Amino acid sequence: MRRIAVVVCFLSLSPLVQADSLPIGTWVKRAPSPGAALTMTVEQVGNGRKLTYKYGPDAPGMVMVVLTQLDGKDVPILVDGKPTDQTMGIRMIDSRHTFTVLKLQGKETGIAKSEVSANGKVLKVEIMMATPGVKEEGAKVVEYWDKK
User: Fold this and answer.
1) Among residues 86, 91, 29, 22, which one has the least CA distance to residue 54?
2) N or C: the chain end with fewer CB closer than 10 Å?
3) Fold of 2-147
4) For position 43, what pLDDT does the model report?
């Protein structure tokens, strides 16, 4: 269950993947929970992106990786190098917006819409969870991330 909660938390990070104009690099979540620093590194891999999420310092070594072509197709989520029952489908809308669908065992558990600021330094993510018990079902959460 801990892995599911961590992956759901990372859902908010996945929309950071944007079009070619997205600054490649490291992003840091604003005002994380105490002891729960969240970072994401975005790397270009071919025409797609590799997202490496790090959660800590209370969970040292906990790393999530997603490889996406930004085409909305479901791709597996790896946590600490091991496959999970979860997938992400990240679709590029335009150069500053994405839409992400998170699934667990093929069933949709949440969506996220993102927008990168015009200067490429701030990411706004709106998350809507569909899974009872993970976050308040139907609740919208808004998060902000800063380019490091």
Assistant:
1) 29
2) N
3) Lipocalin (2.40.128)
4) 93
